[in-house]
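This entry is set out below.
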Amino acid sequence: MTYKIQVIFFVKGWNELTRTLFVATDSDECSNGTHRCEQICIERNKFEDIRGYECDCTPGFMLNPDGESCTGTQLFDYGENFGDLKLHGEARDFNSPIINVSQGFPFGDAFYYRLYVYDFQVRKDTHSRTLQSELKKQVNEYYGSAEEISNFTPKWALKITWENVLPYNGYQNIDLEGTNTYQAVLLTDGIFSFCLIQFKEGGMNWKYDTIPYYRNYALMGYYSASLQSYLDSSKLQAFNDPHTRFNVPPEKIYRPDMYPGFQTEMEVDPYHSCCRDSGDDYYCALYRERRPLDFCAGYIPPQIGFFFGDPHVVTLDGVQYTFNGLGEFILLNVRDENDALTFSLQGRTIRAGENKTSQATVFVTLAAQGPTGTKVQWNLIEDDELSLMINGRTVNVTENSDIINKVAVHKTTKNETVATFQDGISITVSAKMGALSFTTSLDNSSKEKTEGLLGVWNDNKTDDFKAANGTYLKFDGTNLLNERVIFLNFGLTWKTTVNNSVFTYKAAIGESWYTYNNNSFIPKFYDELLQTSDKDKIDKANETCQGNDNCIFDVLSTNDLSFGTATLQSMNSFAAQNSTMKNFPPNITGTSRVQTRLNEPVHTLFTATDANNDAVTFSVLTDSPDIRITGKL
């Protein structure tokens, strides 16, 4: 039945507008077979010339863009809506954290307890139960008869999805029509192990005919096994369906979603190819970038710099000084080999004290911009609270790490807000007594590339006072320069400009760079404070601060004993953190797993070396009369 509906629209100041619509309540297209749906037709009300039905697909199929036909999904459900975690990486290959498999993953003649690729979490939610059911069905259907198993039930599974992957790093024609989407699923019941590789129907779209020949090296579906399995292929019953590049037309190599595969017979072992057989340390180093050692050999802890109190600074090389500039300053710049700026951390100060009138300053805002262009800003909002902004928008930060615009942020148990950038630089900020204290942590790749108030990181203290114009203050690395000289000839040179500021300003209320940087402020230096302060005040400060000059300075400049106490606490916290970072863990070499038979003794040797010459003690976690430790220093 069809109804005619008259709709009248009224707009202020305009005449009325009448529109007539014809509505069909029952088009009968699904029931009379005049629809064009391939699988499921759903009736709906019909407006004028729009069809009166919708199409849908049965489970395991998805609706194509034409809105009518269906295609098998092939891939398991994936994405954050299905409980997956997203691993971010930009510009180059990267590997996941180590994934521990508590029950072990049997493969060939060994169990594997550590895997790479994706950060795995044990889950028992609805999505995980659905995945388990689908995996069980596929394995029993495809491999049950070959492996003589009839009721395989996975006890552990790891699903990895690569979505819209480019052919190679630096590929210029970035478009979704030239990318690949595929999955790999590792699963085991503790006896049998499988790796299912699935390709999205119509989702393998690398334009192989336009890829340069020197980039045309796709290798899909290779597997590695243990040495014993390699020497005796009967010990490895492995199905490996996808194609390799050898003796196969390119259209079959690059479109595995369109062609049936076959079992691969060629063993490929990346470690042997890159390290054992290449004869080139460069290739082995590349392999170690993708598969780093899971012990402490070669470990280099990050370097840290520190700002606290009425600003006191500890540079990356460990030089301590005080700088009470007012305004916005460059705390840290990192430049690459071509002198291009890749990271900048800047700080904003205001006058300290209860009424903000003292002759000293404190940090109240920090801003940082990393290699991806994302801007992060910490703002003091209360004496002991701060907020975080990313690209001008305030974000909620919790103890669970979250990645926002390629920056990882989280809050520590000490209420510190941490932002970690892709170049390995991490900033940890806390608010106390109306001031921000913060620690910068740098990866070793930034060494000899820094400048700013945190100095030149190169393990040489004498050149830490490098001014923005490239000149250096004469410093022997031990006897600190006069505060006034540091302030005028070093600190002030690192004031930001309109062009290099990374702060976010509230333009709506007229805020700009000039709001914070139009001043000629000169602070009171420590020697002046000692000369002009009452003896009683100095004595109380000395007692509260236990003789610490930075603490005494802050008490005298703010006239607040509690502020000095907060400074002392920050200093002690930094000293403890720095000591921990400098204390290398021992390097222990030896077999990672000891195997034996009942009543059969076995001997193994472990060697420990400690870079700090600390004593290393071996002990057995669980006491057993069958295990004895003997050794010598």
